[in-house]
Amino acid sequence: MDEHVVDNPAMSRYELAIGDEVAAAYYRIEDGRVVLVHTEVPHQFTGQGIGSRLAKGVFETIKASGRRAIAKCPFMAAYASRHPEYMALLDG
């Protein structure tokens, strides 16, 4: 299993490969900020920590880019609230 989250700007999403499947965090860019709008994990992987690994990779990628984020996605907002090191990245 690939643990590396990659940005796929053509599809406006961050991706985490899980075998032949992909967990994805969809976003749009507004005023230079990454607005996280929806997260999807393939059903067969629900409850296995895939979403959390995706979220960590997304926030680490955003942090490395020097951008700020807005978590409209409830999953991403909840993840950030449980990890104070990522709360500093959030606006709104």
Automatic annotation (TrEMBL):
Top-rank taxon, per record: Bacteria
SUPFAM superfamilies: Acyl-CoA N-acyltransferases (Nat) (SSF55729)
Alphabetized InterPro entries for the sequence: Acyl_CoA_acyltransferase, Gcn5-rel_NAT, GNAT_YJDJ
Pfam families documented for this protein: Acetyltransf_CG (PF14542)
Domain N-acetyltransferase span(s) in chain numbering: 6-91
PANTHER family: BSR4717 PROTEIN, PROTEIN NATD1
Protein name: N-acetyltransferase domain-containing protein
